[in-house]
Each structure stands twice: as C-alpha cells, then as structure tokens.
Amino acid sequence: MKIYVDADACPVVRQTEKTAQKYSVPVVLICDTNHMLTSDYSDIITVDKGADSADFVLVNLCSKGDIVVSQDYGVAAMALGKGAYPIHRSGRLYTDENIDEMLLKRHIAKTARRSGKRAHLKGPKKRTPQDDERFSQSLEGLILRLLQDNE
Predict the structure, then answer these.
(1) Hey, which of 24, 26, 76, 111 has its CA 20 to 30 A from 121?
(2) 91 Rama sector, left if φ>0, alpha if ψ -120 to 50, beta otherwise
(3) Nearest to 98 by CA among 89, 87, 109
(4) According to the model, what pLDDT value does residue 41 have?
(5) Can you list the positions of beta strands (E) in 11-139?
(6) What is the pLDDT of residue 121?
(7) Rounded distance, CA 28 to CA 149, Å?
(8) So what's the pLDDT on residue 146?
C-alpha cells in the first residue's frame, strides 16, 4: 500500500505525511512545476504543467489497494476503477456508491458556469483545524482498515 497525493494546492499534505509515517506507509506527492514541494518523508514527482498532467500521472501510478488523496472527482473515479481507495481533503471517502452523484453535480456546476448566466457558485469554505482533524481521523481509519484486511 502507498498513498498518492494530488499535491497541487492540496491543504492536507502534512496531515497525510504525519498519519502515513505513524504506520510506515510510503507517500508519493505529485505536483506540476507551478508547485514546488519539499518533504523529509515523501517521494515527490514533479510533472510538466498542463491541464490535468499531475492527475494522469497519479492515476497511472496508483494500483489496487493504494490510497489516493484528491479533491478531484474525476481522479477519484479513475482511482476507484483501478481498485484504489480515494479520499477527499474533507475526509470523505469516495465510493462506488457516491461517485456518480458527485460527478453529476460537478457536471451541472460546470454547465452552469459555461452558460454565461449569472450564477453565483461559492467556492469552498475557509479550512479550519477541525477540518484537518476530521481528515486525519478518516485517513487513519482507512489505513487501519486496509492494514487489517492485508493481515
């Protein structure tokens, strides 16, 4: 098991590393050249900038049983298709049961933005320490479950 992080502007990189290190799970951070990362724990893969370039590398690298940290529903859907366990920065697990609804909502929002009509769609709320704790707890629970399943 490895943890792959879609690290372009990801707010939970350090929480991911801290939790992974506790269980000796390797972490790979993937970002494009617009985001320069350093880490004492994780391997870092920097890819050329371009639409979804880091996403495609992440999906190509992950495999069955890996954990994928991403807020991108498309990346999550592709990771699920490979048997990986995607998790959102909020701590919500993407599953076969909820991914279709998430993708549909993303499509509707994108269509509304492209329509040219004045549709005010708010961005995400400001991140809180409680958000970080919720993510860490969810990630730790997922790691423990996967380690137990592999015994």
Answers:
(1) 76
(2) left
(3) 87
(4) 97
(5) 27-32, 43-47, 67-69, 85-87
(6) 59
(7) 22
(8) 96
Could you state, in order of their start, the residue ranges of all structural domains in the chain?
3-146
Q: What integer pLDDT is reported at residue 105 of this predicted model?
A: 75
* CATH class for the region spanning 3-146: alpha beta
Give the per-residue SS3 of 20-84: HHHCCCCEEEEEECCCCCCCCCCEEEEECCCCCHHHHHHHHHCCCCCEEECCCHHHHHHHHHCCC
Residue 135: predicted pLDDT: 97
In the block, tokens 């993510």 appear at 135
Lateral strand order in the sheet of 85-87: 43-47, 27-32, 3-6, 67-69, 85-87
Per-residue DSSP letter, 122:
-
Cα 90 from Cα 10, distance rounded (Å): 11
Assign 28 to helix, strand or coil: strand
Is 147 strand, coil or helix?
helix
- With a cut of 50, list the residues of the chain below it in pLDDT: none
Check: CB of residue 85 under 8 Å from CB of residue 146. Answer: yes
The reported pLDDT for the residue numbered 17 is 97
User: Could you give the CA distance from residue 16 to residue 113 in angstroms, rounded to a whole number?
Assistant: 32
Neighbours of 131 (CB within 10 A): 18
